[in-house]
Structures are given as structure tokens and as C-alpha cells.
């Protein structure tokens, strides 16, 4: 089946809500608040490689940022049940990401792409990689033999991922990205001008001072806090694992069209 053509903004908004990539998402309110609390209590698993220090120790402050940048319910009294991602915020973030991708293409920048969600977001990242390569960008070729979290870093379709036990794993850990960024200078390779990633991969890159576009769910506040502080360039809010990975294809087509790229 051929990939869909780029939808209009209105059609994409409708698609995001119908597929629950945004709107009434599957992630429950209880899970969102639990993760905000854990981050505020200093649990580094939820920091995604971003050094938050003691700046976000009040979970209500975290909730306020998530309401502003992801569109979750801003009522502190709403403790359970349905929560939301504002599709307008998702599309606005895609528009900002498109501007940065257009610059990368125009300047033929060096770009590193990575995902901790190979079961859902690999095609999105791979499509962006192909479009950038076709535009003349230098896509970082990740060296083989990198180990992290009892697994290995692999690269398929120009996208770095985490493999363990001969399977691609979902991971929010920053460790695989840290291994890549530590090794590149040691082997005489330049660091990327832009990182296009998600979760801990994006958080680690942003913390290292690299221009970073990151994707994250409503229960993963670290990237949105990093964007609020200016550490991360763009945080795109979305449900990162909906039922059918093809549901992300219209979003990808919209992003590439807005960037002036063709897959």
C-alpha cells in the first residue's frame, strides 16, 4: 500500500482525534499524575537524561507545564479517568519541527535519528531520514559495537535503536544515546547538528547541548520541561503507541510536506 498524501491541517486534526494519537488518549489520568509525581520526587528514570536539578520538585508545577505544552487537563483536582492531548498543540509542534527540518535540509546538516519506540515510531523516523538524505543531509552512521543497558545499539533505515536478545526493545533510557555521543568524537566523527528522536534518546541529546526535536507522550513530562527551559528545541506531544503504526503516516506526510521535503 502506498503511503498517504499530506493531509490538510484540518484533516490531520480530525485524524489525530479519531485515531487517539491526540484528543482523548489511552493513557489514563492516574498514570500521568503518577509519572509527574515520580519526576518531581527525583526519580531519574523519568528525567530521560535531562538534568532537572531541584527546579521541578512540585508536581503541580509539572502539571501546569504539561497542560500548557501537551494539553492535559489542568485541573489538579482531576485525579482519575480520562486525560487528553490537545491536537492543536500536536500540530503546532509539528509545524515548529518542520521549520527546523527545512533548515537542516537547506544547510545540508548532519542529522542523527533515533527511537525508543520501534514498534510504533520507526516508520516516522525512517521516513524523515530518507527525506533528509535525499535533500543532501549527512545522516549519522552509528558505529557498531556499542553496548548499553545490557543490550546493543543498532541502526536500521538510518534510525538508531536498542536491541536486546535479537529483538528491538522499547526503551526510555538515555544510555544508548549517551554511548553514541561519547564515541563519535573519540573516533574523529563530528557530532550532529540536529537530533530527531524521542524520549530518553532526545533528552540525552538535548542535555548534551545539541539542537533536538523530540516526541513524547502525556505521561512523559521531561521533554516538555526541557522545552520550557530552552534545553530542547521542539517537543511534540502525541500518544506514542496507538493500535496501528500506520496511523502515524498522515502525521509523517504532513510534517514532511510542511518542511518542503518529499519522502
Structure description:
It is a single chain. This protein has 263 residues and is α/β, with parallel strands linked by helices. The protein contains nine helices and eleven strands. The chain has helices at residues 9-19, 29-40, 59-69, 87-107, 122-134, 175-186, 199-207, 222-229, 249-258; strands at residues 23-24, 84-85, 110-113, 138-139, 147-148, 151-156, 159-164, 167-168, 194-198, 211-216, 234-237. The strands form three sheets. The chain has a five-stranded parallel β-sheet with strand order 4-3-9-10-11, with helices on both faces. The chain starts with 8 loop residues before the first helix and ends in a 5-residue tail after the last helix. This is Phosphatase. It comes from Streptomyces durbertensis. InterPro entries: Phosphatase_SCO2771 (IPR031423).
Helix content: 40-55%
Shape: globular
Summarize the helix and strand pattern as letters: HEHHEHEHEEEEEHEHEHEH
Question: How would a textbook summarize the main sheet?
Answer: 5 strands, parallel
Assembly type of the shown chains?
Answer: single chain
Average predicted confidence as pLDDT: 96
Helix count, per DSSP?
A: 9
The residue ranges in which pLDDT falls below 50 over 5 or more consecutive positions are none
How are the strands of the biggest sheet laid out side by side? 4-3-9-10-11
- Number-wise, the strands total 11
Radius of gyration: 17 Å
Structural class based on helices, strands and sheet pairing: alpha/beta
Q: What is the beta-strand fraction?
A: 15-25%
Distance linking N and C termini = 15 Å
Amino acid at each position: 500500500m502506498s503511503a498517504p498524501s499530506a493531509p490538510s491541517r484540518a484533516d490531520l486534526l480530525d485524524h489525530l482525534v479519531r485515531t487517539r494519537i491526540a484528543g482523548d488518549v489511552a493513557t489514563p489520568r492516574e498514570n500521568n499524575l503518577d509519572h509527574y509525581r515520580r519526576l518531581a520526587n527525583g526519580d531519574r528514570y523519568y528525567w530521560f537524561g535531562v538534568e532537572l536539578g531541584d527546579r521541578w520538585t512540585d508536581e503541580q508545577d509539572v502539571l501546569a507545564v504539561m497542560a500548557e505544552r501537551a494539553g492535559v487537563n489542568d485541573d489538579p483536582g482531576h485525579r482519575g479517568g480520562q486525560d487528553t492531548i490537545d491536537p492543536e498543540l500536536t500540530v503546532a509542534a509539528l509545524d515548529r519541527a518542520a521549520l527546523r527540518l527545512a533548515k537542516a535540509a537547506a544547510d545540508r546538516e548532519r542529522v542523527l535519528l533515533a527511537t525508543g519506540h520501534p514498534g510504533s515510531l520507526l516508520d516516522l523516523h525512517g521516513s524523515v531520514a530518507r527525506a533528509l538524505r535525499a535533500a543532501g543531509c549527512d545522516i549519522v552512521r552509528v558505529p557498531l559495537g556499542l553496548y548499553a543497558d545490557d543490550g546493543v545499539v543498532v541502526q536500521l533505515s538510518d534510525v538508531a535503536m536498542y536491541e536486546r536478545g535479537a529483538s528491538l526493545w522499547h526503551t526510555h533510557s538515555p544510555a544508548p544515546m549517551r554511548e553514541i555521543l561519547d564515541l563519535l568524537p573519540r573516533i574523529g566523527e563530528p557530532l550532529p547538528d540536529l537530533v530527531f528522536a524521542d524520549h530518553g534518546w532526545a533528552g540525552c541529546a538535548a542535555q548534551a547541548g545539541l539542537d533536538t526535536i523530540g516526541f513524547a507522550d502525556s505521561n512523559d513530562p521531561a521533554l516538555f520541561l526541557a522545552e520550557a527551559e530552552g534545553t530542547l528545541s521542539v517537543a511534540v506531544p502525541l500518544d506514542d503507541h496507538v493500535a496501528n503504526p500506520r496511523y502515524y503516516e498522515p502525521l509523517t506526510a504532513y510534517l514532511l510536506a510542511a518542511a518542503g521535503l518529499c519522502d
